[in-house]
Amino acid sequence: AFGHQQIKFAETVHDFGLVKEGQSVTHVFRFQNLGDEPLNIPRVKTS
């Protein structure tokens, strides 16, 4: 049997609401690898 990666996010979307110009905001997306192989995340895309 082959191992697999399986990612589970605590949340998949975050809305910062109204952000004023020049204001800095951050958010941490927490996730867990439920698979039995190391999780590889080669790139991340935001919008």
TrEMBL record:
InterPro entries: DUF1573, Ig-like_fold. It comes from the Bacteria. Gene3D superfamilies: Immunoglobulins. This is DUF1573 domain-containing protein.
